[in-house]
Design brief:
93% of the residues lie in helices and 0% in strands. It has 2 helices and no strands.
Length: 68
């Protein structure tokens, strides 16, 4: 469980970074509507990354306590 959650978190971090870069590109071109759309997607992926990371750490802690 923890491994998969860490993997999902990493995927969402990568997607968030991609959308942050796209937002910056659109912003520099003056296309603020597209920039905002990508910034919103970046935020959504960041939230999902945080959720998966929290689940991974919880699962890791539970696994650690189960072995003790």
């Amino acid at each position: 469980m923890a491994h998969e959650a860490h993997h999902k978190s990493a995927e969402h971090h990568e997607e968030a970074a991609k959308h942050h870069h796209l937002a910056a590109e659109h912003h520099s071109k003056g296309d603020h509507k597209k920039a905002h759309e990508h910034a919103t997607k970046a935020h959504e992926h960041s939230v999902k990354a945080h959720e998966h990371s929290a689940a991974a750490h919880k699962a890791s802690g539970e696994a650690l306590h189960a072995h003790n």
